[in-house]
Amino acid sequence: MKEAEAERVASEMLTRRIKEKAEWRDFAVLYRGNFQARLLELKLQTLPNSVQALRRHVVFLP
Prior knowledge:
Elements: H1 3-19, H2 37-44, H3 50-55
Helix pairs in contact: 1-2
């Protein structure tokens, strides 16, 4: 995941939270490797309560 992709995902999540009153549990982000999670996590840290809320709903798939 590149920085622009992480920014777009975080922006889309925030937009849907505001416009559609979505909960954090309504979102899923799939990526191929754990190394890709860090950049997205950094972007989401700018959104209130996002990282903590998303961590409660993490599911690891093989």
